[in-house]
Amino acid sequence: MRCGKTPELRKKLLNVKGIGRETADSILLYALGKRSFVIDAYTKRIFSRHRLMQEDGDYDDWKAVFEKALPRRVGLYNDFHAQIVRLAKEFCGTAARCHNCPLRQGINLPKDAKLF
Ligand code: SF4
Hints:
Elements: H1 6-14, H2 21-31, H3 41-49, H4 59-69, H5 74-90
The structure holds iron/sulfur cluster.
Residues 46, 49-50, 87, 91-92, 96-98, 101, 103-104, 106-107 line the site of iron/sulfur cluster.
């Protein structure tokens, strides 16, 4: 699979019963080292709380924003997502603990602020 092209592999994975887009992208990024950004509930929670994206937006729209904005490097996708997970676990849970959060300044962004 490592020799395959990412879009084709993603299509094949999505054809497997039980594999959704987040799982397919996780397999591509973490198991195969392919450049495919993973969107999860943590990502949606943090970025929508900062009014940068709509939480109920389509998965592929979210993915496209990150992949357009970030340098196209597997290691960076990997680390960026890991930082999101850590931020969510330490500060941005179901209840936000903004007081000590490193992103706390961002919560005053205007409603129409764009992510990039
Ligand atoms: S400041 Fe931190 S905890 Fe508060 S909403 Fe933003 S990411 Fe979540």
